[in-house]
């Protein structure tokens, strides 16, 4: 589950992680009031207005049809009000949103931390995520912050550092000092970085994050270390331990079909192809999509009905796939292990009859537990469904169906 920047920062503050302070608002008038409050509290003439969407690259992105950036600086209440008015309600297009963009419903009015001071400021980068190849958490950090880390890794890989931490333990003091040293910090900034990264790692573990990225991680002119931006992803499988965090979910930022699928405990990801897929098991789903591509088609979705699928969940999956106008054929590939093939077959029949006029070809491959019963159910149903035994055979049938539809 992704969080907005302002939500992530509020969580970090509970773990004594220093952040750039800000106030989330949803109207231009509230943005102007937020500026006045920040000016009184922190004394700076400037403030930053940041669009709150679940996508990176907001500073480079633009509101569709305008030259307004997703992140902009203002120096008085009127400017802040104008900027917020230009952003709120607009569609922000960034490299991560694609051309469709995302609607901005909130902005964060944040304090200016770049004002001049006795020492130079510095933008750094730091993120924490699981390294599945080593079975450990890894802290990735760099002296090059404020830019795409992929670009740094491509052009200057020697500037990317990594520190691994065993998931059963905490970040050790010597590791935190090593990170501060590699980032070129000294004196008070060094001490503050040790404290910052230690508390940040504790937040990562305690909140069951799957990603915690600070870019830029900022050294202020008075040697404080703060998170200017924060991208936080929470592990969906751990949300049962955090009902308070689950309440932070913003379904307006998610694909509507994926939201609907989650109501039925379906693992669904929308793709850009023309072949709808319904499979049980993530590995089999990936193999099915590979086979579709090898046969000349393009998967329209990833849909794993899981091991507890019944007629209701199969029908729900069917309806979700058919909502995509790009779908030219549907491939159902079920291996009956935990889930019974006859249950899936009954779900297909019920969905077909309930939905009515289904005009796309349906190819079904059912193997495993009660596969024979499933085949008889489908054969006796009178439905226009093509059966296959081998996965390669099913993929070829799909390819032919798509070619005919085209």
UniProtKB/TrEMBL annotation:
<feature type="binding site">
    <location>
        <begin position="57"/>
        <end position="59"/>
    </location>
    <ligand>
        <name>ATP</name>
    </ligand>
</feature>
<dbReference type="InterPro" id="IPR013650">
    <property type="entry name" value="ATP-grasp_succ-CoA_synth-type"/>
</dbReference>
<dbReference type="InterPro" id="IPR005811">
    <property type="entry name" value="SUCC_ACL_C"/>
</dbReference>
<comment type="function">
    <text>Succinyl-CoA synthetase functions in the citric acid cycle (TCA), coupling the hydrolysis of succinyl-CoA to the synthesis of either ATP or GTP and thus represents the only step of substrate-level phosphorylation in the TCA. The beta subunit provides nucleotide specificity of the enzyme and binds the substrate succinate, while the binding sites for coenzyme A and phosphate are found in the alpha subunit.</text>
</comment>
<comment type="similarity">
    <text>Belongs to the succinate/malate CoA ligase beta subunit family.</text>
</comment>
<dbReference type="GO" id="GO:0005829">
    <property type="term" value="C:cytosol"/>
</dbReference>
<feature type="domain" description="ATP-citrate synthase/succinyl-CoA ligase C-terminal">
    <location>
        <begin position="278"/>
        <end position="394"/>
    </location>
</feature>
<keyword id="KW-0460">Magnesium</keyword>
<feature type="binding site">
    <location>
        <begin position="337"/>
        <end position="339"/>
    </location>
    <ligand>
        <name>substrate</name>
    </ligand>
</feature>
<dbReference type="GO" id="GO:0004776">
    <property type="term" value="F:succinate-CoA ligase (GDP-forming) activity"/>
</dbReference>
<dbReference type="InterPro" id="IPR005809">
    <property type="entry name" value="Succ_CoA_ligase-like_bsu"/>
</dbReference>
<dbReference type="InterPro" id="IPR016102">
    <property type="entry name" value="Succinyl-CoA_synth-like"/>
</dbReference>
<keyword id="KW-0067">ATP-binding</keyword>
<dbReference type="InterPro" id="IPR013815">
    <property type="entry name" value="ATP_grasp_subdomain_1"/>
</dbReference>
<feature type="binding site">
    <location>
        <position position="215"/>
    </location>
    <ligand>
        <name>Mg(2+)</name>
    </ligand>
</feature>
<keyword id="KW-0816">Tricarboxylic acid cycle</keyword>
<dbReference type="GO" id="GO:0004775">
    <property type="term" value="F:succinate-CoA ligase (ADP-forming) activity"/>
</dbReference>
<keyword id="KW-0547">Nucleotide-binding</keyword>
<dbReference type="GO" id="GO:0000287">
    <property type="term" value="F:magnesium ion binding"/>
</dbReference>
<dbReference type="GO" id="GO:0005524">
    <property type="term" value="F:ATP binding"/>
</dbReference>
<feature type="binding site">
    <location>
        <position position="229"/>
    </location>
    <ligand>
        <name>Mg(2+)</name>
    </ligand>
</feature>
<comment type="pathway">
    <text>Carbohydrate metabolism; tricarboxylic acid cycle; succinate from succinyl-CoA (ligase route): step 1/1.</text>
</comment>
<feature type="binding site">
    <location>
        <position position="123"/>
    </location>
    <ligand>
        <name>ATP</name>
    </ligand>
</feature>
<dbReference type="Pfam" id="PF00549">
    <property type="entry name" value="Ligase_CoA"/>
</dbReference>
<dbReference type="InterPro" id="IPR017866">
    <property type="entry name" value="Succ-CoA_synthase_bsu_CS"/>
</dbReference>
<keyword id="KW-0436">Ligase</keyword>
<comment type="subunit">
    <text>Heterotetramer of two alpha and two beta subunits.</text>
</comment>
<dbReference type="Pfam" id="PF08442">
    <property type="entry name" value="ATP-grasp_2"/>
</dbReference>
<keyword id="KW-0479">Metal-binding</keyword>
<protein>
    <recommendedName>
        <fullName>Succinate--CoA ligase [ADP-forming] subunit beta</fullName>
        <ecNumber>6.2.1.5</ecNumber>
    </recommendedName>
</protein>
<feature type="domain" description="ATP-grasp fold succinyl-CoA synthetase-type">
    <location>
        <begin position="2"/>
        <end position="218"/>
    </location>
</feature>
<dbReference type="GO" id="GO:0006099">
    <property type="term" value="P:tricarboxylic acid cycle"/>
</dbReference>
<feature type="binding site">
    <location>
        <position position="113"/>
    </location>
    <ligand>
        <name>ATP</name>
    </ligand>
</feature>
<feature type="binding site">
    <location>
        <position position="50"/>
    </location>
    <ligand>
        <name>ATP</name>
    </ligand>
</feature>
<dbReference type="GO" id="GO:0006104">
    <property type="term" value="P:succinyl-CoA metabolic process"/>
</dbReference>
<dbReference type="GO" id="GO:0042709">
    <property type="term" value="C:succinate-CoA ligase complex"/>
</dbReference>
<feature type="binding site">
    <location>
        <position position="280"/>
    </location>
    <ligand>
        <name>substrate</name>
    </ligand>
</feature>
């Amino acid at each position: 589950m992704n969080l907005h920047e302002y939500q992530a920062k509020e969580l970090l503050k509970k773990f004594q992680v220093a952040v750039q302070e800000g106030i989330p608002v949803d109207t231009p008038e509230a943005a102007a009031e937020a500026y006045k409050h920040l000016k009184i509290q922190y004394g700076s003439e400037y403030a930053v207005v940041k669009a709150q969407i679940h996508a990176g690259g907001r500073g480079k992105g633009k509101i569709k049809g305008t030259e307004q950036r997703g992140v902009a600086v203002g120096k008085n209440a009127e400017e802040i009000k104008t900027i917020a008015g230009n952003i709120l309600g607009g569609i922000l297009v960034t490299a991560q949103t694609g051309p469709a963009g995302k609607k901005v419903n909130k902005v964060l009015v944040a304090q200016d931390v770049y004002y001049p001071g006795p020492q130079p400021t510095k933008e750094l980068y730091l993120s924490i995520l699981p390294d599945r190849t080593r079975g450990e958490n890894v802290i990735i950090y760099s002296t090059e912050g404020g830019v795409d880390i992929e670009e740094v890794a491509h052009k200057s890989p020697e500037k990317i550092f990594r520190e691994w931490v065993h998931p059963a333990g905490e970040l050790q003091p010597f590791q935190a000092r090593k990170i501060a040293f590699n980032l070129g910090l000294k004196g008070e900034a060094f001490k503050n970085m040790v404290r910052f990264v230690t508390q940040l790692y504790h937040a990562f573990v305690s909140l069951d994050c799957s990603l915690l990225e600070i870019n830029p991680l900022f050294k202020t002119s008075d040697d404080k270390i703060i998170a200017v931006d924060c991208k936080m992803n929470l592990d969906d499988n751990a949300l049962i331990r955090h009902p308070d965090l689950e309440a932070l979910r913003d379904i307006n930022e998610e694909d509507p079909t994926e939201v609907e699928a989650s109501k039925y405990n379906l693992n669904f990801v929308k793709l850009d192809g023309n072949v709808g897929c319904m499979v049980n098991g993530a590995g089999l789903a990936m193999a099915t999509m590979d086979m579709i591509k090898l046969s000349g088609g393009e998967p329209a979705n990833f849909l794993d009905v899981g091991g507890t699928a019944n007629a209701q969940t199969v029908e729900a999956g069917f309806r979700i796939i058919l909502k995509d106008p790009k779908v030219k054929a549907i491939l159902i590939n079920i291996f009956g292990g935990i889930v019974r093939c006859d249950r899936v077959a009954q779900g297909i029949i019920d969905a077909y009859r309930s939905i009515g006029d289904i005009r796309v070809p349906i190819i079904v491959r059912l193997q495993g537990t009660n596969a024979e019963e499933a085949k008889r159910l489908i054969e006796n149903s009178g439905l226009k469904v093509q059966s296959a035994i081998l996965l390669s055979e099913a993929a070829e049938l799909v390819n032919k169906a798509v070619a005919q539809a085209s």
